[in-house]
Amino acid sequence: MRSALPPLVLVWSLACGSEPAPAPQQTAALAPELASTYQAACAPCHARPGVGAPLTGSAADWSERRARGIDALVASTVEGVGGMPPLGTCGLCSEDDLRALVSYMAFVPAEAAR
Amino acid sequence: MSARGLTRRALLGGALAAGALAALPARRAIASSRSLPWRNWSGFQECRPARRLGPLSEAEVAALLREGGGVIRPAGAGHSFSALVPTDDALLFLDRMSGLVDSDAASLQAEVWAGTRLGPLGPALGAIGQAMPNLPDIDYQTLGGALATSTHGTGARFGSLSSQVVSLTLATPRGELLECDAQRNAEVFHAARTSLGALGVVTRARLQNQAPVRLGERTEWRDLDAVLADLPRERDTNRHFEFYAFPHASVALAISTNETDAEPGATVEDDPGGLHTLRALHRATRWLPAALADPLYDALIRASPSGERIDWSHRVLAHPRTTRFNEMEYTVPAAAGPDCLRELLAVIRARARRLLPDRVPPRARRRRLALDVPRARGGLDLGARVPRRRSAALLRRGRAGVLEVRRPPALGQAAHARRGSDRRALSEVARLPGRAPRARSRGAAGESPPRRSARGLTHRKESTRSASMSEA
User: Fold this and answer.
1) Distance from A82 to chain B by nearest Cα, in Å?
2) I need a surface site. Which of A10, A30, B93, B165 has the fewest CB within 10 A?
3) Has residue B192 got a pLDDT over 70?
4) Which carries the bigger pLDDT value, residue B22 or residue B394?
5) What value does the mean pLDDT of chain A take?
């Protein structure tokens, strides 16, 4: 089954276009197993500038989202939001896994993620 | 029974035997504070599995199947649009079995764990001097899931990803590990390369790769008629050729991809949000009379740039996507393709000037499911007048049947669900006044009954492959 959509090259900047790459920041460590999950399921969008997903560690991308609270962010991850599919393509992840991954990306202090 | 010489019939027999086993505790079940639903990429397939299994090794996969435990369905990254995965019992993920197993530089072959995502696989193969000859448009999938569903890309000389497999290991429903290739268990090998997960769990596959290659992907806007007239030549002279047509516009986006020695670079950037832009342009022009709207829309699309991207093949062939969609594919004889497309576009232009295939967010879709059919009917068939409340009641009654038929048998599950409820719902909708189209589910297994001609396909509101082309 081919997954097909055109590699559209339109440059009208209505959606996600010329977003500067933020400096990588890492404040929350991930367990080794979750680190590999992050690389496989999250990084393809959240570590790739220009895709439109909030970039890991980018305060500018996450500040408004963090204001909604970690529970709301986890709920969005479970349901899928915008271009992100349900569970962020990590079908194996538990709610605790998702909470840790979202916290890592959103730069939320660990104590606030609980 | 020895593993050697197992036939497909024996495997299926094993599946039935596995299903007869009583539920046993499954190892490596994922602990969770609460049960989470599983949904596919588009959100149109969903379930709430009782268990999620994440084995760490082939031995664990085999043990899980050997111990039974009811229905076990293998799941990848959830990028299939068909009802292959949903079950209330157990989902098995191979996410913890990813990466390269081994490789051979002389033959350019690499053995890869089935839980490996296609995205990271490209750089991993590049590091050992190999590359997959072809890739799909999206690389979020796991290798095992992509093989099971015959995921493919473009290019007349390429088969699907399954054609790149030279051997594989299959964990059978009996809990045996079966090594298969064109000589050993050949019948099982050929079936398991695209098994939809029905023969067991493919745990690893050896791929026939090639040396890394740079590709140049050139995109240009051309008249649709010219593209269709030149299609055979484009197909035969390019490594890859594809094009996208748009309703209400005479233009097509033509994409040709070929090998090159040029250094990586780009005169245009991939724009994963391009579909949002095209949708906005369409909406911005639809309020005008057709005589003005269509030429304006056409001109706006043509104003976007053409150009070329050059990079290693795994970076060129796969694209990031931020517009989720539900996709269906239809296969027609190549010679009939242009006429088929012309007919589809003509029907849309004539009968649905304001229609643009759209995606309804899953949460909203569930609330609005009952309203979707009359909304579509208003756009596609102005002759039908159906009270919303009546159609909503019909769909509510038919929904239970739809949920049954969207679940084909899985490992250890013998029979298909009955379709009686679905038929009742369809027959009730058929009695509605006017030229009402038949009701159907949003899931792939609940697709409309076959029509007698391609013309009938235009009644589908879902984002078909051709419709996804036309999402602009």
Assistant:
1) 7
2) A30
3) yes
4) B394
5) 73
DSSP B205-251: EEEE-B---EEEEEEEEEEHHHHHHTHHHHHHHSSEEEEEE-TT-SE
Asked if A86 and B39 come within 8 Å (Cβ–Cβ), the reply is yes
Task: List Cα–Cα distances, A40 to A37, A105, B97, in angstroms.
Answer: 5, 14, 12
* Chain A stretch 3-22, residues whose beta carbon is closer than 8 A to a beta carbon of chain B: 3-12, 14-17
**pLDDT at residue A95 tops 80:** yes
Smallest Cβ–Cβ distance between A87 and the set B38, B140, B219 belongs to B38
* CA angle at B176 for the pair B170 and B177, rounded to the nearest 5°: 40
Chain B, residues 115-144, CB within 8 A of chain A, namely 117, 119-120, 136-141
Say which residues have a Cβ less than 8 Å from residue B323's Cβ, sequence separation at least 6: A5, A83, B272, B273, B275, B276, B359, B471
DSSP B60-120: HHHHHHHH--S-EEEE-SS---SSSS--SSEEEE-TTS-SEEEEETTTTEEEEETT-BHHH
- Contact call for A9 and B242, based on CB within 8 A: no
Judged against a pLDDT cut of 70, whether residue B364 lies above it is answered with: no
The Cα B315–Cα B81 span in angstroms is: 24
How far is Cα B417 from Cα B399, in angstroms, rounded to an integer?
A: 14
Measured at the CA of B39, the angle between CA A69 and CA B360, to 5 degrees, comes to 80
Q: What gap in Å lies between CA B278 and CA B471, rounded to an integer?
A: 8
DSSP structure class, residue B353: T
CA–CA separation, B139 and B159 (whole Å): 17
pLDDT at A109: 54
First-to-last alpha carbon distance for chain A, in angstroms, is 40
Contact B135, B118 (CB under 8 A): yes
Q: Does A32 touch chain B (CB under 8 A)?
A: no
pLDDT band at B234 (very low <50, low <70, confident <90, very high): very high
d(CA B34, CA B31): 9
Contact at CB, A2 and B152, closer than 8 angstroms: yes
- From A35's Cα to the closest Cα of chain B, the distance in A is 12
For B469, list phi and psi in degrees, rounded to 5.
-60, -30
User: Which among B43, B140, B269 has the least Cβ separation from residue A44?
Assistant: B140
- Residue B248: which region, alpha, beta or left (left: phi > 0; alpha: psi -120 to 50)? left
Hey, which residues 41-100 in chain A have their CB within 8 Å of chain B? 41, 44-45, 48, 50-53, 78-80, 82-83, 85-87, 89-96
Q: Which residue of A has its CA nearest to B147?
A: A1
For B295-312, write each residue's pLDDT tens digit: 888 888 888 778 899 999
